[in-house]
Amino acid sequence: MALALIGAVVFVAWRACAPEQPEHAPPLLIGTAKPGATHIDPGTVGRPDGFVEGTGWPDACSFLSDAEIQAVLPQAARIQRTRGEVRLSTMNEFDATGGPLTAPRGGCTYKFELPGLQGVVIGVAEKIDARPEVVDMNWSNLVSHRNDVPGALGAENCAAGITGQPMTCRKGQLAYDVSFDLLQAFSTTALRGRKLHVRHGGRSTAFDLDNDRSALGRFQSTVVEPELAKTINAKIVKA
Predict the structure, then answer these.
(1) 71: left (phi over 0), alpha (psi -120 to 50) or beta
(2) Which residues lie closer than 8 Å to 144 by C-beta, 6 or more apart?
(3) For labeling, which of 26, 48, 145, 178 is most exposed (least CB within 10 Å)?
(4) Is the pLDDT of residue 116 over 90?
(5) In the predicted model, is pLDDT for residue 183 greater than 50?
(6) CA distances from 190 to 24, 76, 115, 182 (A)
C-alpha cells in the first residue's frame, strides 16, 4: 500500500513537470482592412528628374500599424519591424535622368507570430516616389506584365502578386510592393495532418503544406495581400 502511494505521488510529480505536448493549431482567421487615421506623406519632389530625395521618402515601417495588421490577421502577435534601405542604381533604371538614389527608410520587414507559426512576414518596399507622370511612365516595367487588379483597391492601379512576386500598387507619387509570406514560417505546434486550416468570410479551407503549397500561395496573393494594399492605399496622401 505504501509503495503504491509513493508511486502515485511520483507519477503526479512527473506529470506536473513533464513538458506539454504540442496542441493542434487553431484555424487561421482572416479579417478585412480597417485603415487608421494616420496618413502616408510621399514628401516633396526636389530633384530635376522628378524624384523625391531618398531621405524624404516615407518610412515603410509606418505603412501598417499593429492594429491594421491585426484587422487583417486578428491573431497576429509580437509584431516586430526591421527597416531596410531601397537603392536605385541610376535614374535611368526608370527611364529618367539623374544619379544614384538611396531611400534609407524605403523598405520594411514586419515579422510576427500566428497561432502555431513563427516567422510570418509582411514585406513593404517602396519602388518610386516621384511625380505621378514619372510613376506612370514606369508602371509597366514595375509590374512585369502582371494583370491589374479590378477596382485597383483604392489606388490608381494595383497588379496582382504571383509566385515569387509581391502585389504592386501605385497612388499619386508612390509605387510600392506589399507581400505576405506564410510559406517560410515554421510551425511551433502540430498542424493537423500537415494541413493549415484557414477561416475567411464564413468559410473554412485546409491547405496541404506538403502537396499543394501553391494553393496557399494563391490564397496569400488573392485574399491577404489585397487587404493589406487597401489599408496602405487608403492612407497615402495624393497631392
Answers:
(1) alpha
(2) 165
(3) 145
(4) no
(5) yes
(6) 5, 18, 11, 16
CB 216 within 8 A of CB 30: no
CB burial of residue 4 (10 Å; 0-12, 13-18, 19+):
exposed
Query: How many other CB atoms are found less than 10 A from the CB of residue 49?
Result: 17
Give the pLDDT confidence score for residue 21 in this predicted structure: 46
Half-sphere exposure of 53 (CA within 13 A, CB side): 4
| Grid cell locating 125 | 518596399
**pLDDT tens figures, 43-66:** 999 999 999 999 999 999 999 999
The letter for the amino acid at 3 is L
- Look up residue 170 and give its three cell numbers: 501605385
The label of the residue with cell 502585389 reads 167
> How far from chain centre, in Å, is Cα 92?
29
Joined grid coordinates for residue 189? 505546434
